[in-house]
Specification:
CATH class of the domain at 645-763: Mainly Alpha
CATH architecture of the domain at 645-763: Alpha Horseshoe
Radius of gyration: 34 Å
Number of helices: 45
Shape: globular
Largest sheet: none
Number of strands: 0
Strand content: under 5%
Length: about 775
C-alpha cells in the first residue's frame, strides 16, 4: 500500500508538472488566446475578441496571426485607424500576406488615398493576377482617379475570373451609373441580386438604383424585400426611412421606426435608430427624450452613452455630460469620442484654447477622424484663427463627406467672407445630406439672392417654408428676396410674418428697421423698434438696436446713450452695445469715459478682441503710443494675422520708434490682407520711410492718396505729410513743399501743423 501510494504521488506530481509546463509554454498560451478570440469573433462579440487577441500579442509581440485577427476585429468595430495599424504590422512581419495587403489597400481607398493604395494594388496585381478581389480593388483606385474606362475594364476581368459571384456585377453597375449608363446598370444590379439573393448589400443597391431613377414604388418594394431577406439587419429599415424622408413622409418614417425599434433588442444600431432619426432631423428635444430612455435601459451600451453625452452637450446640460464623459475617460483615457466630447464642452465653457490642445491630441492619435477636425475647426474659429479653422473644416468634410455640421460650419464661414459661390456649393451639400432640414435651402437662397438669381432663390425659400411653416429664418429670407427686388412693402410684410412667429427675433426686427432706413424713414424705424420693445421689454438686443438707429442717424444722442446703457444693464456680455456706447462717448468728446467703458467691459468679456482694438484707437487719439501698442498686441493674440490689427500695431510701433523690421513685417501682412486700404498703403510706406527706402515709400504714399480718392473719403492730411517728408528725403523739395502746403490746406490744426510750418519756413 505504501508503494502504491508513493507511486500515485509521483505520478500526480509528474502530471501536475506537465500541466504547469504547458500553461507556462508561451506557444500554448498564445494559441489559447487566439482560439478564444476567434470564438468570440465568430459569436460577434468583437470587444471581447479584441481583448483576447491583444493578450496573444502580449505573449508574443511578433505573432502575425493575432495581429491579423485583431485588425479584422477593428474593422468590425469600425475602428479604421486601429485596423490600418494592425494590418500594417502584419505586413511588417509577413510581407507576403496578400490578404492583409488587400485589406490595407481597401482602407486606403476608403480614405481616398489613391496614391498609396495604388502601391499595394500594383504589387497585388503582380502576385495574384487571378484574384478577382484584387481586380476590384484596382478598379476602385482607378474610379477614385476618375479613370472610369480603366475601372470598368478591371471589373470585367473580375467577372471573367468569378462569373458566379455577385460583387463584381455590383461594382460594374455602380461604375455604369457613374458613366451615365442607367439601363446597363439596372441589368447588372439585378444580376448581382440574382447571384446573391441573401446578400442585403445587393438588395439595397438595387433599391438605391430605383430611388435614383425616381421609381419610388419599386424602391420601397425592394427595401421591404431586403427587410424580409434579413430581418435581423437594421440597414434595410434605415434605407426605407431615408426613402420616406426624401419623399417628405417624415411622419411615416417616424411611425415606422417606432414599430421596428423593438425588433433589434440585441443590435445597438437597431434600437438606436429612432433616437438617431430625431438627431439627424435636428429635433433635439425628441432625440434627448429617446436617449434618456435608452440610457436608462441600456447604460452598458457604450455607443448609447456616448450619443447621450452628445445630446446633453447640445442641450447645454454640461454638468451631466461631463459626469458621464469622465466615467468613460476614467476607464479609457485615450477614448477618441470621449476626448472629442471633452473638447466640445471646453468650447462651450468659453475655453477654446484648452479645447484645441485636447482635439490636437486626438488628431495626433487618429488623423483620420473627421469629427475631431470639425470640432478643432470650431475651436480655432472661436479664437479668431479663421484661416486655420476653415482648413480644419475642409479636412473634416474630406474625411467625412456625410458630416452635415461641418458643411453647415463651412457655409457660415463662406457667409462671413461674402463668398457666395462657396456658400452655394456648401449649401447644396447640406440639401443633399439633409433634404428635410430647411437650413441648406435657406443658405442657398441667400447665395442666389446676392447673385441676383431670384427664381431659384424663391424656389428654395418656398421649400424651406413647406418643411418648416413656423420657421422665422425662412420668412426673413423671403423678405430678403423681396428687399433685393426693392419690393419694400412686400419685404416688410414678410419680415412682420417672421416677427409674428417669434416676437423676440432680433433678425426680424432688424430687417423691418432696415426697410424703413432704406426708404430714408428713420423716424418710422425708431417707432417700430420702440413698439417692439414695449412688447418685449427685457431684450438687450432690442435696446441695442434702438440705440444704434438713434446714434447712426444722429436722431437723439441722449436717447441712444440711454438705450445702450439699458442694453448693457440687461446683458453685460452684449459686446455690440458696449462697443457702440464707447463710440458714442468718444464722439461726445468723453474719451476717458469711453476708455473706462471698454476696460470695464473686458472684465466680463476678456476674449472680445474688439474692445482691445477700440482701446488701441482711443489711446492712439490721445497719442499714448505705449498703451495703444499693448492693446493691439493683445488683440493680435486673439486674432493672429488680422490685417486691421497688424496695420494699427505696425503704425503705433513706427510712431514709438520701435522694432522697424517687425513693424515692416506687420505692415506687409496688413497690405496683403487689405490691398484696397489707403491706410495699409500709408503704413507700409511709413515703414519703408523709416528703413530709408524712400522711393518705395513715395510709391506707397501716392497709392494711399489714389485709394483714398477712389473710395471718395475725405482727404487725409497724414498721407500728404508722409509723402512730403519722403520727397524731402529723396531730394525733391518742390514736391515736398507742395504736399506740406496741402496738409495745412486740409487741416490747419493738424497734429503736426507746427512741424509742417517749421519745414515750410526753412524751405
Amino acid at each position: 500500500m505504501r508503494y502504491r501510494s508513493t507511486l500515485f504521488l509521483i505520478l500526480l506530481i509528474g502530471f501536475t508538472m506537465v500541466v504547469v509546463g504547458c500553461s507556462r509554454d508561451p506557444n500554448v498560451r498564445k494559441q489559447k488566446y487566439l482560439e478564444s478570440g476567434r470564438r468570440y469573433f465568430n459569436s460577434s462579440k468583437y470587444r471581447e475578441a479584441a481583448i483576447q487577441f491583444g493578450n496573444a500579442i502580449q505573449v508574443d509581440p511578433r505573432y502575425a496571426d493575432a495581429y491579423y485577427d485583431l485588425a479584422r476585429t477593428h474593422l468590425k468595430l469600425q475602428q479604421w485607424s486601429a485596423a490600418f495599424q494592425e494590418f500594417t504590422r502584419v505586413l511588417e512581419l509577413q510581407p507576403a500576406n496578400y490578404s492583409a495587403r488587400l485589406d490595407v489597400a481597401n482602407l486606403l481607398i476608403a480614405a481616398r488615398d489613391f496614391k498609396h493604395a495604388q502601391e499595394h494594388t500594383g504589387l497585388l496585381l503582380q502576385q495574384q493576377p487571378n484574384n478577382p478581389q484584387v481586380h476590384l480593388a484596382v478598379a476602385s483606385v482607378l474610379a477614385g482617379q476618375e479613370n472610369f474606362p480603366g475601372a470598368i475594364d478591371q471589373t470585367q476581368k473580375a467577372i471573367a475570373l468569378a462569373p458566379d459571384r455577385y460583387e463584381p456585377y455590383l461594382t460594374l453597375a455602380v461604375l455604369q451609373m457613374k458613366t451615365n449608363q442607367p439601363a446597363q446598370a439596372e441589368v447588372n444590379f439585378k444580376k448581382a441580386v440574382a447571384l446573391g439573393p441573401n446578400q442585403v448589400g445587393a438588395q439595397l443597391a438595387l433599391g438605391g438604383y430605383y430611388q435614383s431613377q425616381s421609381r419610388d414604388a419599386e424602391a420601397e418594394q425592394q427595401f421591404r424585400h431586403a427587410v424580409d431577406v434579413d430581418p435581423t439587419n437594421p440597414d434595410p429599415c434605415a434605407a426605407l426611412v431615408r426613402l420616406y424622408m426624401t419623399q417628405g413622409k417624415k411622419n411615416q418614417a417616424e411611425s415606422f421606426l417606432k414599430q421596428v425599434k423593438y425588433k433589434f433588442p440585441r443590435k445597438s444600431e437597431g434600437y438606436r435608430m429612432l433616437g438617431d432619426f430625431y438627431f439627424a432631423d435636428w429635433d433635439l428635444e425628441k432625440a434627448t427624450a429617446e436617449y434618456t430612455s435608452l440610457y436608462g435601459e441600456r447604460s452598458n451600451d457604450i455607443q448609447v452613452k456616448k450619443n447621450y453625452i452628445q445630446l446633453l452637450i447640445l442641450t447645454n446640460r454640461l454638468d451631466d455630460a461631463r459626469k458621464l464623459n469622465d466615467e468613460i475617460l476614467k476607464t479609457s483615457p485615450n477614448d477618441t469620442d470621449a476626448l472629442i466630447e471633452r473638447g466640445q464642452m471646453r468650447i462651450r465653457n468659453g475655453h477654446p484654447d484648452d479645447a484645441i490642445v485636447t482635439l490636437r491630441k486626438v488628431i495626433e492619435n487618429e488623423p483620420g477622424s473627421g469629427v475631431a477636425h470639425y470640432h478643432l475647426g470650431i475651436a480655432l474659429d472661436a479664437t479668431g484663427d479663421l484661416s486655420q479653422a476653415q482648413s480644419e473644416l475642409q479636412d473634416a468634410v474630406r474625411l467625412r463627406p456625410d458630416l452635415s455640421e461641418a458643411w453647415r460650419a463651412l457655409a457660415n464661414a463662406a457667409l462671413r467672407q461674402g463668398d457666395m459661390s462657396g456658400l452655394e456649393q456648401t449649401a447644396s451639400q447640406l440639401v443633399a445630406l439633409q433634404p428635410t432640414v430647411p437650413d441648406g435651402y435657406l443658405f442657398r437662397a441667400f447665395a442666389n439672392i446676392n447673385r441676383k438669381q431670384f427664381a431659384p432663390a424663391e424656389a428654395d425659400i418656398r421649400k424651406a417654408i413647406d418643411l418648416a411653416p413656423q420657421s422665422v429664418a425662412a420668412y426673413i429670407q423671403l423678405g430678403n428676396l423681396r428687399f433685393a427686388r426693392r419690393q419694400f412693402a412686400e419685404a416688410g410684410n414678410s419680415y412682420q410674418q417672421a416677427l409674428d412667429r417669434d416676437p423676440s427675433s432680433l433678425g426680424a426686427l432688424n430687417a423691418i428697421v432696415n426697410v424703413y432706413l432704406a426708404q430714408k424713414q428713420a423716424d418710422k424705424a425708431v417707432d417700430v423698434a420702440k413698439a417692439q420693445i414695449a412688447k418685449v421689454p427685457n431684450s438687450s438686443s432690442f435696446h441695442d438696436l434702438l440705440g444704434t438707429v438713434l446714434f447712426d442717424n444722429r436722431k437723439d444722442m441722449s436717447g441712444a446713450e440711454a438705450a445702450f446703457e439699458k442694453a448693457v444693464a440687461l446683458d453685460k456680455n452684449n459686446a455690440h452695445a458696449l462697443m457702440k456706447l464707447g463710440q458714442l462717448q468718444a464722439a461726445k468728446g468723453s474719451t476717458d469715459q469711453a476708455v473706462a467703458t471698454y476696460l470695464n467691459a473686458l472684465q466680463d468679456n476678456p476674449r472680445e478682441s474688439g474692445f482691445y482694438i477700440l482701446l488701441g484707437e482711443l489711446y492712439e487719439s490721445k497719442r499714448d503710443w505705449e498703451k495703444a501698442e499693448q492693446m493691439y498686441r493683445k488683440a493680435l493674440e486673439f486674432r493672429p494675422g488680422d490685417p486691421l490689427i497688424s496695420n494699427n500695431l505696425a503704425y503705433v510701433m513706427l510712431q514709438m520708434g520701435g522694432n522697424v523690421d517687425l513693424a515692416l513685417h506687420l505692415a506687409q501682412t496688413a497690405r496683403r490682407g487689405m490691398p484696397d486700404s489707403p491706410n495699409a498703403a500709408d503704413t507700409l510706406g511709413w515703414a519703408f520711410y523709416q528703413k530709408g527706402v524712400f522711393k518705395s515709400a513715395i510709391d506707397l504714399f501716392q497709392e494711399a492718396l489714389r485709394l483714398g480718392e477712389r473710395s471718395r473719403s475725405l482727404e487725409n492730411p497724414t498721407f500728404h505729410y508722409h509723402l512730403a517728408l519722403a520727397y524731402e528725403k529723396n531730394h525733391q523739395p518742390l514736391l515736398a513743399k507742395e504736399h506740406f502746403q496741402r496738409v495745412l490746406g486740409i487741416d490747419p490744426n493738424y497734429t503736426e501743423a507746427a512741424a509742417v510750418r517749421k519745414q515750410l519756413a526753412r524751405m
